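Subject line: Sequence and fold of a protein, written as structure tokens
Area: Proteins and the way their chains fold up in space.
Start of record: The labelled sequence and token lines come straight after this line.
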Amino acid sequence: MRLNHVNLVVEDLDGAQGFFRRSFGFGLLDRKGDAVAVMNDGQGFTLVLSNVRAFGGEVPVRYPEGFHVGFILETQEEVDRAHGRLVADGADIGREPRSMRDSYGVLLRSRRSWPIRTGAEPQFLCNFMQNHNI
């Protein structure tokens, strides 16, 4: 069995699509109006972004505490470059990349309505790690 895709519910489909394209290099595979964007990382992972309003969901979107998405990069330099792209895109990261759990990485936080988590608000946490043993 192989994981096919992950669906993230977002409030701003255009903003989330642009964010994942600019910050993480995802390409658009398909778009269904203002309801769904299907994206791919170019390495076989498919990300589906669904507009909460198109499916009658509640705003603001709330992810459970601890929910997160992690990205693995090969080198510390790649983590640093990813960090720089996110800062330039307005992510509220709060600290520089650092060593943690036998790897090098950064936890990202943002005040935007697409899924990156802010402080105590239960939304979504994203981390970059340089290490395959997480």
Observations:
- Strands lie at 5-10, 27-32, 36-40, 46-51, 68-73, 98-100, 103-108, 125-130.
- The mean pLDDT is 76.
- The longest strand covers residues 5-10.
